[in-house]
Amino acid sequence: MSQILAFDFGLARIGVAVGQSITGTASPLNTLKAIDGKPDWVAVEQLIKQWQPQKVLVGEPLNMDGTEQEITKRARKFANQLHGRFGLAFEMVDERLSSVAARDELFDSGGFKKLKKTQIDSVAAALILESWFACN
């Protein structure tokens, strides 16, 4: 069994989820605050130590036609920093529509009061991870 952390990169918030390969399921964790895409690296290190993932996934924000946008480069830079700082294998995962799906899932489970931005980001990270499990 291997643990995997997934990140839904954003400039103000970075959603985080953890999953286990044996069950193919993911659970949202607390969202990390970021300043212009820069996370609190101490908080990231604590997550790495706590979950000891064998791999990290980072959502790759693409336009609907598959082309890159400015944030795509920033997400890749974040993934490279995770690799450089912690020596972890990483993989970029197409995240198109993950935030929309996360909003729908939260709304379905509790209406408008469930739609908190911090929850949306981590649920999106969980959906990214579960989509990766489904393809691997």
Automatic annotation (TrEMBL):
Which residue spans adopt a coiled-coil conformation according to this UniProt entry?
none
> Which compartments is it annotated to reside in?
Cytoplasm
Q: According to the UniProt entry, what is the EC number of this protein? A: 3.1.-.-
- Chief place where the protein resides: cytoplasm
Q: Where is the YqgF/RNase H-like domain?
A: 2-102
InterPro entries assigned: RNaseH-like_sf, YqgF, YqgF/RNaseH-like_dom, YqgF/RNaseH-like_dom_sf
Tell me the function of this protein: Could be a nuclease involved in processing of the 5'-end of pre-16S rRNA.
Q: Kindly provide the name given to this protein in its UniProt entry.
A: Putative pre-16S rRNA nuclease
